[in-house]
């Protein structure tokens, strides 16, 4: 792509587009300078917020990017081809192809990051780290949709990022989609197979694959209730609970054993606990709390 000249005073910097003019206004122009296409409608409240914010940043970019605004009520053709389901919907075009997109009204910082990616001014590594960090917080809060969106955004910038791949696999596991998690993990580079996040999610996947049915779990619960000192039943219950993703409950069951006998059954409970730490992830709150609790047992 050619280096764009300063077009900040160009009357065509921000224009109203149409289906008929899309090829000339977007496809052709994007071969020399990135073009942002804003699909909007007069009745759309978020569109009225997003539009001026985008125009401000496009103007500030001083010609590094152009903007075309398309009213979907009057021009449904291109938005239909791009499968726009809701507005505002914004696409970034380079070299005649859509290369980035988002929906909804975003804060100015995220709009600026979107423009920076198009113009090549973005610190991609930093942005990936920020997206992954935000996704991890969403995942911890149970916001699977938000986590998936940020992990996907990170992977659009760095398709081999092991933290993003591991996180996306965890989202699939949280949705009980084992096949989806496996398909994501197949994308991991051989050199990243020992990455801590990948190792952790592989451990979680192994646990889920061995998860019991509710019918199989019921007698284990009954056995522990009938005889709390039956550590074999309690250990089996911990394995079952971990397979169903109930890590806290599984660890609690193991700590009941460890509080009585640290070396029970050739340290089986302790080994299982370490496996759960690995599956939960080294930075998870569950792991941090569990390690503190284990340390207090080992050194008192």
Summarize the structure.
By secondary structure, the protein is α/β, with parallel strands linked by helices.
Give an overview of the whole structure:
- The protein has 14 helices and five strands.
- It is of the alpha/beta class.
- It has three domains: 14-119, Glutaredoxin (3-Layer(aba) Sandwich), CATH 3.40.30.10; 124-208, Alpha Horseshoe (Serine Threonine Protein Phosphatase 5, Tetratricopeptide repeat), CATH 1.25.40.10; 214-298, Alpha Horseshoe (Serine Threonine Protein Phosphatase 5, Tetratricopeptide repeat), CATH 1.25.40.10.
- It has a five-stranded mixed sheet, with helices on both faces.
- Helix 6 (144-157) runs antiparallel to helix 7, helix 7 runs parallel beside helix 9 (196-209) and helix 11 (231-243) runs antiparallel to helix 12.
How does the SSE layout of this entry go?
Layout (H helix, E strand, L loop, with lengths): L13 E3 L5 H7 L6 E6 L4 H16 L5 E6 L4 H6 L7 E6 L2 E7 L4 H12 L4 H17 L3 H14 L4 H13 L3 H8 L10 H14 L4 H13 L4 H13 L3 H14 L3 H17 L4 H14 L2
Parallel strand pairs: 1-3, 2-3
Antiparallel strand pairs: 2-4, 4-5
Helix pairs in contact: 2-4, 5-6, 5-7, 6-7, 7-8, 7-9, 8-9, 9-11, 9-13, 10-11, 11-12, 12-13, 12-14, 13-14
């Amino acid at each position: 792509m050619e280096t764009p000249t300063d077009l900040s005073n160009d009357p065509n910097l921000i224009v109203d587009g149409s289906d008929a003019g899309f090829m000339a206004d977007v496809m052709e122009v994007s071969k020399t300078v990135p073009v942002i296409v804003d699909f909007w409608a007069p009745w759309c409240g978020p569109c009225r917020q997003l539009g001026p914010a985008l125009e401000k940043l496009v103007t500030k970019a001083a010609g590094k990017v152009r903007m075309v605004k398309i009213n979907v009520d009057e021009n449904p053709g291109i938005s239909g081809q791009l499968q726009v389901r809701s507005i505002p919907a914004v696409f970034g075009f380079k070299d005649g192809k859509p290369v980035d997109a988002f929906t909804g009204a975003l804060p100015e910082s995220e709009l600026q990051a979107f423009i920076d990616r198009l113009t090549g001014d973005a610190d991609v590594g930093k942005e990936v780290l920020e997206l992954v960090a935000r996704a991890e917080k969403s995942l911890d809060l149970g916001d699977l949709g938000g986590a998936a969106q940020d992990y996907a955004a990170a992977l659009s910038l760095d398709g081999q990022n092991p933290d993003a791949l591991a996180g996306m696999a965890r989202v699939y596991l949280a949705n009980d989609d084992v096949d989806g998690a496996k398909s994501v993990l197949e994308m991991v580079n051989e050199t990243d197979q020992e990455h801590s996040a990948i190792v952790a999610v592989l451990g979680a996947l192994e646990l889920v694959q061995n998860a019991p049915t509710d019918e199989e779990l019921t007698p284990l619960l009954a056995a522990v209730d009938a005889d709390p000192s039956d550590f074999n039943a309690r250990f089996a219950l911990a394995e079952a609970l971990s397979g169903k993703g109930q890590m806290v409950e599984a660890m609690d069951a193991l700590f009941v054993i460890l509080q009585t006998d640290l070396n029970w059954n050739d340290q089986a409970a302790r080994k299982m606990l370490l496996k759960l730490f690995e599956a939960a992830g080294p930075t998870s709150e569950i792991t941090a709390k569990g390690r503190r609790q284990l340390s207090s047992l080992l050194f008192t």
